[in-house]
Amino acid sequence: MSVLTENNISLQNEISILKKAKNAVILAHYYQEPEIQEIADFVGDSLELAKKAATTNADIIVFAGVHFMAETAKILNPSKKVLLPDINAGCSLAESCPPEAFQELKEQYPNHAVVTYINCSAEIKAMSDVVCTSSNAERVINSIALDKSIIFAPDKNLGRYLIEKTGREMLLWDGACIVHEAFSIDKLLELYAKYPLAKIIAHPESEEHILKISNYIGSTSGMLNFVKSSQQDTFIVATEAGILHQMQMDVPNKTLIPVPAKEDNSCACSECAFMKMNTLQKLKACLKDESPEIILKERLMKAAHRPIKRMMEL
Ligand code: SF4
């Protein structure tokens, strides 16, 4: 739950007034701070937010998430103003795949189909045949002709999981998310010993040894649905801890325990420092100043739009 300080409430009120005056919409990722999720018009995972961004009538989209997500919103809405409260809110996974190095790999394997996870830069999307999210990745891989070899980037953990699920051989880019690679298997097992009836649920960006012992593996929205529909009442959750806010609202009587990170951290859970760079103050300032804005070259947007559109069609 958010800390509803007087300051937060007054910031939320000011944001609502600005939002109306400017015909803006606030899209927030599940990994955002609770007080941002509460003020958002829509909260979702990457796929849900991309779909929402594609259909909005607002003049301004404020994307409370990280840079590649705001870029995707801009690519889907080239004529709209897309704002990101903190322009430095990046993503370790997207940054693990620099465009020049990826171009070199593509040149080595010119006949491979290129499937990229949405957590990558606009430049990488522009070099792809089709984009996917963790919700639809299996379906996207299965849509590639069986006689076609595949390059999958940038997440090697999701890639490995997809190889196992689809039985397709894929050339994997060596990228990863710092948050999902930080989970401690030892601490997870300690938790499980304490709560033997709990179900372990994990995002496929997690490492193989975490996925191997999980009862359910799925996207952020998949995990939310699993927890809602399961008869079980205790869950050990291996993904960014921000999801617990929405989850706990959906299932107020169930117990949700975040998997701790390898390093000792004060909240005993794993949080994405990039996602947490956005604050209510920055959200208000960016709406007021209409900045920082996501600016992309026309040609890049067109090239990156094709593989996203293909994903949407699938
Ligand atoms: S949780 Fe990982 S993949 Fe998601 S934005 Fe943060 S660094 Fe990127």
From TrEMBL:
<protein>
    <recommendedName>
        <fullName>Quinolinate synthase</fullName>
        <ecNumber>2.5.1.72</ecNumber>
    </recommendedName>
</protein>
<dbReference type="GO" id="GO:0051539">
    <property type="term" value="F:4 iron, 4 sulfur cluster binding"/>
</dbReference>
<feature type="binding site">
    <location>
        <position position="91"/>
    </location>
    <ligand>
        <name>[4Fe-4S] cluster</name>
    </ligand>
</feature>
<feature type="binding site">
    <location>
        <position position="272"/>
    </location>
    <ligand>
        <name>[4Fe-4S] cluster</name>
    </ligand>
</feature>
<dbReference type="InterPro" id="IPR036094">
    <property type="entry name" value="NadA_sf"/>
</dbReference>
<comment type="function">
    <text>Catalyzes the condensation of iminoaspartate with dihydroxyacetone phosphate to form quinolinate.</text>
</comment>
<keyword id="KW-0004">4Fe-4S</keyword>
<keyword id="KW-0408">Iron</keyword>
<dbReference type="Pfam" id="PF02445">
    <property type="entry name" value="NadA"/>
</dbReference>
<keyword id="KW-0411">Iron-sulfur</keyword>
<dbReference type="GO" id="GO:0005829">
    <property type="term" value="C:cytosol"/>
</dbReference>
<dbReference type="GO" id="GO:0034628">
    <property type="term" value="P:'de novo' NAD+ biosynthetic process from L-aspartate"/>
</dbReference>
<keyword id="KW-0808">Transferase</keyword>
<feature type="binding site">
    <location>
        <position position="46"/>
    </location>
    <ligand>
        <name>iminosuccinate</name>
    </ligand>
</feature>
<feature type="binding site">
    <location>
        <position position="29"/>
    </location>
    <ligand>
        <name>iminosuccinate</name>
    </ligand>
</feature>
<feature type="binding site">
    <location>
        <position position="134"/>
    </location>
    <ligand>
        <name>iminosuccinate</name>
    </ligand>
</feature>
<dbReference type="InterPro" id="IPR003473">
    <property type="entry name" value="NadA"/>
</dbReference>
<comment type="pathway">
    <text>Cofactor biosynthesis; NAD(+) biosynthesis; quinolinate from iminoaspartate: step 1/1.</text>
</comment>
<keyword id="KW-0479">Metal-binding</keyword>
<feature type="binding site">
    <location>
        <position position="177"/>
    </location>
    <ligand>
        <name>[4Fe-4S] cluster</name>
    </ligand>
</feature>
<feature type="binding site">
    <location>
        <begin position="117"/>
        <end position="119"/>
    </location>
    <ligand>
        <name>iminosuccinate</name>
    </ligand>
</feature>
<comment type="similarity">
    <text>Belongs to the quinolinate synthase family. Type 2 subfamily.</text>
</comment>
<feature type="binding site">
    <location>
        <position position="220"/>
    </location>
    <ligand>
        <name>iminosuccinate</name>
    </ligand>
</feature>
<keyword id="KW-0662">Pyridine nucleotide biosynthesis</keyword>
<feature type="binding site">
    <location>
        <begin position="203"/>
        <end position="205"/>
    </location>
    <ligand>
        <name>iminosuccinate</name>
    </ligand>
</feature>
<dbReference type="GO" id="GO:0008987">
    <property type="term" value="F:quinolinate synthetase A activity"/>
</dbReference>
<dbReference type="InterPro" id="IPR023066">
    <property type="entry name" value="Quinolinate_synth_type2"/>
</dbReference>
<keyword id="KW-0963">Cytoplasm</keyword>
<dbReference type="GO" id="GO:0046872">
    <property type="term" value="F:metal ion binding"/>
</dbReference>
